[in-house]
Amino acid sequence: xxxxxxxxxxxxxxxxxxxxxxxxxxxRVWDRRLxxxxxxxxxxxxxxxxxxxxxxxxxxxxxxVRSQEDGSEALISILGRGDTIAECAYCAHETxxxxxxxxxxxxxxxxxxDTIADCVARDPGFALVLLRLQQRNLxxxxxxxxxxxxxxxxxxxxxxxxxxRRGQTGTAAVELPYEKALIAQLLGMNPESFSRALAKLRxxxxxxxxxxxxxxxxxxxxxxxxxx
Length: 228
Hints:
This protein is of the alpha+beta class. The protein is built from 8 helices and 11 strands. It has helices spanning 5-13, 23-30, 113-122, 127-150, 153-163, 180-186, 191-202, 218-226, and strands at residues 36-38, 43-45, 53-59, 62-67, 73-79, 84-85, 99-102, 106-112, 172-175, 206-209, 212-215. Residues 151-219 form the HTH crp-type domain. Residues 17-111 form the Cyclic nucleotide-binding domain.
């Protein structure tokens, strides 16, 4: 779905993280900026680059990756509309601690370090926005680590599928938002383990055809995902 410029502005202004922020400060966040468009596979920034911008996701999907010295990569998160990237940008002389790459065609609003510093100088309360952003992302990471430690591969896949159902109860039909290999990486498993997990879920009434998933009983799948 494409969004017009005025829709983008309204969306940013109504994001929960910006609640209570004075309209003139929000105007500075948007002031004379056009969203940046990134085609699939385009790198927004590399780990170790100077952190010049905070990005607000307006449309599309971006993956965040942490690289290791041996060249291996860990997928940290997959972000979409309403998410933010690189909250570290407001810290002077900081560098990006991860890389970001567009998975689908993505539009993002880049907010420069100088703009962020100016907003904080004009209203120290704006720093609360930055703290909210960091708190939100920290909570997501804690939840991710908890699942890795306490849930089986099949349970992690079940939880991921349940998050896609958008309030459906009883039976549900969902569409996987990304390629299965990318979902597997996000959930901390290889593609073979992901396939075995899906096979396990078939025993619970989950039917899989490509990226289309049908849940025979949401309650049954929830009980399995939450079990100790």
